[in-house]
């Protein structure tokens, strides 16, 4: 099966290629005219479906997408589906700069939040849309807490400030295979791969 990765986030692409080795995977760089899809839904699953449907329709191939984010208990689940757009920088600067701005905004917002109240979890919705219109969504989740200063150089996005439950290390301190074994994205995409018989 050929799968088109309906994402422009390079941090995701690296992890997804590793999770989908059983398939022939092509990236959006092969489709320069692919549409930008506004994320107008209020749920991870809704946004993931919007992205995969648009790319399946454009390419005529089976598309997979990832909508993900960090939900912080002390912020009533925010930034959640707004995780990429939280700082208002999205699309206006290089992705690493946007990630850094988002991460520091979150640290600022949690500055007065006590250690015991810093629980958070990542969510990933993995959508699978076939050109004939069949579609499915798989969700995965990873528990942890937001620490006070970044640690670690791996991964992307909020990884350096997210200490993974039971690990004593941030997601950015895990090796890539360790992160995938535990992560929201790993759980969601292993289920997606299994549904395709991998
Ligand atoms: P596409 O829509 O093109 O896939 P995007 O970057 O816009 O890319 P999202 O809307 O799903 O993707 O935003 C995901 C946000 O959640 C973004 O700010 C990420 O940095 C963050 N995020 C998701 N998974 C993460 C992970 O495993 N580690 C750290 N941050 C993560």
UniProtKB/TrEMBL annotation:
<dbReference type="GO" id="GO:0009146">
    <property type="term" value="P:purine nucleoside triphosphate catabolic process"/>
</dbReference>
<dbReference type="InterPro" id="IPR020922">
    <property type="entry name" value="dITP/XTP_pyrophosphatase"/>
</dbReference>
<feature type="binding site">
    <location>
        <position position="68"/>
    </location>
    <ligand>
        <name>substrate</name>
    </ligand>
</feature>
<dbReference type="GO" id="GO:0035870">
    <property type="term" value="F:dITP diphosphatase activity"/>
</dbReference>
<keyword id="KW-0378">Hydrolase</keyword>
<dbReference type="InterPro" id="IPR029001">
    <property type="entry name" value="ITPase-like_fam"/>
</dbReference>
<feature type="binding site">
    <location>
        <begin position="184"/>
        <end position="185"/>
    </location>
    <ligand>
        <name>substrate</name>
    </ligand>
</feature>
<dbReference type="GO" id="GO:0005829">
    <property type="term" value="C:cytosol"/>
</dbReference>
<dbReference type="GO" id="GO:0036220">
    <property type="term" value="F:ITP diphosphatase activity"/>
</dbReference>
<dbReference type="GO" id="GO:0000166">
    <property type="term" value="F:nucleotide binding"/>
</dbReference>
<dbReference type="InterPro" id="IPR002637">
    <property type="entry name" value="RdgB/HAM1"/>
</dbReference>
<protein>
    <recommendedName>
        <fullName>dITP/XTP pyrophosphatase</fullName>
        <ecNumber>3.6.1.66</ecNumber>
    </recommendedName>
</protein>
<keyword id="KW-0479">Metal-binding</keyword>
<dbReference type="GO" id="GO:0036222">
    <property type="term" value="F:XTP diphosphatase activity"/>
</dbReference>
<dbReference type="GO" id="GO:0017111">
    <property type="term" value="F:ribonucleoside triphosphate phosphatase activity"/>
</dbReference>
<feature type="active site" description="Proton acceptor">
    <location>
        <position position="67"/>
    </location>
</feature>
<comment type="similarity">
    <text>Belongs to the HAM1 NTPase family.</text>
</comment>
<feature type="binding site">
    <location>
        <begin position="156"/>
        <end position="159"/>
    </location>
    <ligand>
        <name>substrate</name>
    </ligand>
</feature>
<keyword id="KW-0460">Magnesium</keyword>
<dbReference type="GO" id="GO:0009117">
    <property type="term" value="P:nucleotide metabolic process"/>
</dbReference>
<dbReference type="Pfam" id="PF01725">
    <property type="entry name" value="Ham1p_like"/>
</dbReference>
<feature type="binding site">
    <location>
        <begin position="7"/>
        <end position="12"/>
    </location>
    <ligand>
        <name>substrate</name>
    </ligand>
</feature>
<keyword id="KW-0546">Nucleotide metabolism</keyword>
<feature type="binding site">
    <location>
        <position position="179"/>
    </location>
    <ligand>
        <name>substrate</name>
    </ligand>
</feature>
<dbReference type="GO" id="GO:0046872">
    <property type="term" value="F:metal ion binding"/>
</dbReference>
<keyword id="KW-0547">Nucleotide-binding</keyword>
<feature type="binding site">
    <location>
        <position position="67"/>
    </location>
    <ligand>
        <name>Mg(2+)</name>
    </ligand>
</feature>
<comment type="subunit">
    <text>Homodimer.</text>
</comment>
<comment type="function">
    <text>Pyrophosphatase that catalyzes the hydrolysis of nucleoside triphosphates to their monophosphate derivatives, with a high preference for the non-canonical purine nucleotides XTP (xanthosine triphosphate), dITP (deoxyinosine triphosphate) and ITP. Seems to function as a house-cleaning enzyme that removes non-canonical purine nucleotides from the nucleotide pool, thus preventing their incorporation into DNA/RNA and avoiding chromosomal lesions.</text>
</comment>
């Amino acid at each position: 099966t050929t799968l088109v990765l309906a994402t422009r986030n390079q941090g995701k692409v690296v992890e997804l290629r590793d999770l989908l080795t059983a398939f022939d995977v092509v990236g959006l760089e092969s489709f320069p005219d692919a549409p930008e899809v506004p994320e107008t839904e209020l749920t991870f699953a809704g946004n993931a479906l919007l992205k995969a449907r648009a790319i399946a329709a454009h390419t005529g191939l089976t598309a997979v997408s990832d909508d993900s984010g960090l939900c912080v208990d002390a912020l009533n689940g925010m930034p959640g589906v707004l995780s990429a757009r939280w700082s208002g920088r999205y699309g206006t600067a290089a992705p690493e700069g946007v990630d850094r701005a988002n991460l520091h905004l979150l640290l600022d917002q949690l500055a007065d939040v006590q250690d015991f109240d810093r629980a958070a979890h990542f969510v990933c919705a993995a959508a699978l849309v076939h050109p004939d219109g069949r579609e499915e969504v798989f969700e995965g989740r990873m528990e942890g807490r937001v620490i006070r200063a970044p640690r670690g150089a791996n991964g992307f996005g909020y990884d350096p400030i997210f200490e993974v439950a039971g690990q004593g290390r941030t997601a950015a301190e895990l090796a890539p295979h360790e992160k995938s074994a535990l992560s929201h994205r790993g759980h969601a995409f292993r289920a997606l791969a299994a549904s395709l018989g991998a």
